[in-house]
# Entry
Amino acid sequence: MLALGALGACDTSQAQQGPYNPAYQGVETHLLDGDLVNFRVAMKGARSSTDVDEYAECAAAQYALIRGYGFARHVRTNVYEEGGLWRGDAVYTISAALPRGLRTIDAEVTALACAENGIPMV
# Structure
């Protein structure tokens, strides 16, 4: 019973926020040096910086696959919002083998998840 009450509380808070209808405004990709790539993303309707991070991660995953690589490692992301437009400036390394580090992604798995969630990629 307690679990059902908690679940109901979650549903109420999400209903108060309204539906999530992001408007993806595009991705700019810039090769910085060798395997280091900069992704600049823009979107409207983000709930928080996490949505912008996910958009950049999806772009990085697809970019890695296009280049024939299977992995990417997050270096940094700067996110800011102005007038309802959210922008992200992210840097990833791409590689054929799983790179060292804590924030690595399997490009194929991530790209599939992005497609399932309706997040556009490069």
The first strand starts at residue 23 and ends at 33. The two ends are 45 Å apart (CA to CA). The longest helix spans residues 49-66.
